[in-house]
Amino acid sequence: xxxxxxxxxDRLTHPLVRxxxxxxxxxxxxxxxxxxxxxxxNIEAHxxxxxxxxxxxRSTNEMNYVAQKFTRVVVGTNxxxxxxxxxxxxxxxGLSAVFGSGGGxxxxxxxxxxxxxxxxxSAARNAHPIFFQHVLKGIxxxxxxxxxxxRRTGTAQWADLxxxxxxxxxxxxxxxxxxxxxxxxxxxxxxxxxATSGFxxxxxxxxxxxxxxxxxxxxxxAEAIRRLAHAYATADRAQLxxxxxxTEHHNATDNVRALINLALLTGxxxxxxxxxxxxxxxxxxxxxxxxxxxxxxxxGFQDLLDPEVRARFEQVWSNTIQPRHGLNLTEMLEAMGEGxxxxxxxxxxxxxxxxxxxxxxxxxxxxLDHLVVQDIFLTKTAQMADVVLPAxxxxxxxxxxxxxxxxxxxxxxxxLTPPGEARDDIEILCDLARRLGHDWHYDGAEExxxxxxxxxPAHTGMSYSRLEEHxxxxxxxxxxxxxxxxxxxxxxxxxxxxxxxxxAPFAVLEHSPPVxxxxxxxxxxxxxxxxxxxxNTGVQSSGFASPLRRGETVELCPEDARRLGLTAGExxxxxxxxxxxxxxVFIDPxxxxxxxxxxxxxxxxxxxxxxxxxxxxxxxGTAEFxxxxxxxxKLVPAKAG
Amino acid sequence: MSVPLPPPRRLxxxxxxxxxVRLPEGSTILDAxxxxxxxxxxxxxxxxxxxxxxxxxxxxxxxxxxxCSRRAxxxxxxxxxxxxxxxxxxxxxxxxxxxxxxxxxxxxxxxxAEYDADPQRFGQEAATVEQPVKVDNDLYVRDYGxxxxxYKCVDACGDQWQNSFAITVAGRGFDSHISTEHDAPLTDSxxxxxxxxxxxxxxxxxxxxxxxxxxxxxxxxxxxxTQTTTICAYCGVGCNLTLHVQDNEIVKVTSPHDNPVTxxxxxxxxxxxxxxVQNGRSAKxxxxx
Lengths: 641, 289
Prior knowledge:
- The complex is a heterodimer.
- In chain A, β3, α2 (61-75) and β4 form a beta-alpha-beta unit.
- A 7-stranded mixed β-sheet of chain A has the order 2-1-15-14-13-3-4, sandwiched between helices. In chain A, strands 21-23-22-27-20-24 form a 6-stranded mixed β-sheet.
- Chain A contains 24 helices and 27 strands.
- Chain A is α/β, with parallel strands linked by helices.
- By secondary structure, chain B is α+β, with helices and mostly antiparallel strands.
- Chain B folds into 2 domains: 1-128, Ubiquitin-like (UB roll) (Roll), CATH 3.10.20; 140-278, ADC-like domains (N-terminal domain of TfIIb), CATH 2.20.25.
- In chain B, 18% of the residues lie in helices and 19% in strands.
- Chain B contains 7 helices and 12 strands.
- In chain B, the strands form 4 sheets. Chain B has a 5-stranded mixed β-sheet. A 3-stranded antiparallel β-sheet of chain B has the order 10-11-12.
- In chain B, a hairpin with a 6-residue loop joins β7 (167-170) and β8 (177-180).
- The relative contact order of chain B is 0.11.
- The interface between A and B is large, with 71 and 63 residues.
């Protein structure tokens, strides 16, 4: 097989500005002046809501705090979001709708101490290997593990039972599990009565989903559905973990709610060892949202629409905050297309290659009057910018904190001096703020953090010295004198109804199959995901010589390969209703007939996201990366000459 | 709040070289005498009792006991520096030093001096495990001429942590050695390049390719390196990385063994995927094909 490997990206070492359509080297003064001038021009002409900030889920909490403050105070809009939109926004939306807080409810250690582990749409063995070591500890200690995934992944190979469902049938499967639990009388009636609401209606809504009916829709044998239902419901403790197999769908928030329903039905939440864990894909996706780098929440995940909350921030920031939600990433891109957003400050994101339907994303970014990109590489997105600002790499060239999937805030420390003229993100933001009339100075990341701690009760107790002492602290941490339990929502088990608080609502949900329908022209279901040694658009992971890397391939099962007359390594054309790419065939018996798999790791060679569909979840805005309809054709022999 | 707390542990009192020491029930003798030399002991692994360099004398015990695995019991009288202990450690170090290249084993030279060991005394004909270095990928190398057969890499790769089972012990007696399936190159094995074997190797038999190349070029200067612990940028799990930096370049990555997220383990991206931050950083040709 021809080994395709793009040249690794080189670090950006000096600012660039665009003159006569070409990016050229500039001084920092020149680039910052140019960046600020463009923002000012657009805000003056069209108002603050013509500005959009894409903050960076890879950067520190401190940088995200300053970036959202820049958006809300210097510009005066709530148009701030990050790529958490493309992965776990539905988890946050679903969890916060039910429990009032968007974080995973459990900690890694609890996975080791539980009795049943359900890995739903999560290839953690390859995508989150060190989390999976905690799962393996649990399995070694006797926990039963169930894997729910269209592919027989590395995770599924460790499962007691693999439920290989059809792509996009998670709700029918969850409903059938719920119905079986109810009919077997295994639901936790005491918990349901005391801590939840809407059970009767929910029970009626799942009634049609017998395991046999669900088998027809999901492809999972009724007996397997029963086994999962009984194991989950009868376990003393159970963990339900999910990843992008649940969230990268057009009805993703519903998918998340369907899983939460199961935890409410059985009381597997709010206790040690029982909980709900979305595994986050980027190092600080959790923290970016916690810091308010999202259009509907202020730092500390506090409600932007609450006047009292706003007043507290307005007092500290000496500025008024717009009392309405800003645009999320998906809406920003649409607004760019419609000329409503005319300038964008994009920090450390590569939407040109990471967004579904990448061609339309390029078109929309191209319509901006003024685009500023701050990154460590000249990515495909940065190449479209009017001003490019070279940044330091947060994880090794900056001080600060990240927040992981178990809500643990951990210290990030500077180990390297950034190359060339590259500078710290927070310093750059402050320089721009000063040019736009706000005299900002932060004496290092700790000063930013201490400002955040004053405003966010969930972080108040987390001084840098305590974070060091405890090797990270999980939020909430309201006091410097104590450490809270490692799980959330213990209140649901309180005997005092006042302490118990708002009951957690069941959700009544409808099955909605993938938007991109299979037909005779596009008969194959394409799903996308990660490989062990690579990461997202490959900008970072292409930098090291992984012996496991084999470039992009289109993976399909031996039966489909035979039917289509394809052999391993043969280059084929893969087409969807939106685009076409060429990639070599890789035959994988872990796939089922009708299902093909590709990654998004090698977009410079094979732009998988030109195939995917931008059908987005109406609540969270996440696109349906996991379900496109495609066809595979043999290449016609190349013409001579 | 119902976080299960471990039951309170009783303290047991033992004497070490005549001094009373109190430690929680279940602790090992090694916990009471931290400066005892060890090789096969790993703080994240189940003791294997393979190297015998940590043996101590316990009053009433017929044989010397390995401090790393023997639990402390109330009233135990331990000698760590008796004639018998010194003689045993000396012999162990001589046997290891005569057959294995201990040149990169931290502590070995000091112990050999301290116990007056003479690895050369078996003469030039003494059997050794000397063999060519295995360099079959760009991430880490295997120099089994430095392997003392402590099994730590096998345990880390196997059911204690990684569960990849890419390596195990092959052969018998003096010929036993660590091997992939059918002694295939790593690139044809089950190895996933997590480097968790490198993390626990006590002798430098397993090392980063960067370290191996720099040692060969004479540019490896451990005394000039800084170690900074930060967080991996590749996924949301939040693994702690300790970056070993020399001349503003990352030369090696480890993880704190007592960290609640990693317990010292990483995946290929966290351990080896750092090169992107230093590509184009200097004029020096970096890792490229």
